[in-house]
Amino acid sequence: MELQTILDDLAGAVPKAIGAVLCDFEGETVVASLGAARAPEQAEALAREHVPRSMALAMPVQEFLVRLAGAEPCALLRMFSLLGDKHGTGALSTFELRYDEVDVLVDRLPNDFYLVLLL
């Protein structure tokens, strides 16, 4: 089963999913999928602040938000994992962030890949 299909199935199976994204160790999107739920209204305006005015957004805003929301938590989880390994406490493998209206679940997968689910 290809990665896009797996991610589409995951995002589709979770009713409150805004989207899911699989990232590499730098937070770069490998594949992304949109869920049935919409991001909070103010999220679109905030997303547009990340795109220079001279550039057109090359994807739907909802997909951009999912990719953007996945990038930094993956890098953060990797940093905590490396520090934990370095100091002998073990690697951090999962964490959850909660904002006013959005939950972000991040899980480290094998080979330095990360799964992010936005609810």
Q: Tell me the strand order in the biggest sheet.
A: 2-1-5-4-3
Main sheet attributes: strand count, strand direction, barrel closure:
5 strands, antiparallel
Number of strands: 5
Oligomer type:
single chain
Could you explain the architecture of this structure?
Helix content is 38%, strand content 24%. The protein has 119 residues and is an alpha+beta fold. β1 and β2 form a beta hairpin. It starts with a helix and ends with a strand.
Features:
119 residues, alpha+beta, 5 strands, 38% helix
Q: What's a concise summary of this model?
A:
The chain has 119 residues and is an alpha+beta fold.
Please specify the SSE layout and strand pairing:
Blueprint: H1 3-13, E1 19-23, E2 29-34, H2 41-48, H3 61-86, E3 94-98, E4 103-109, E5 113-118
Helix pairs in contact: 2-3
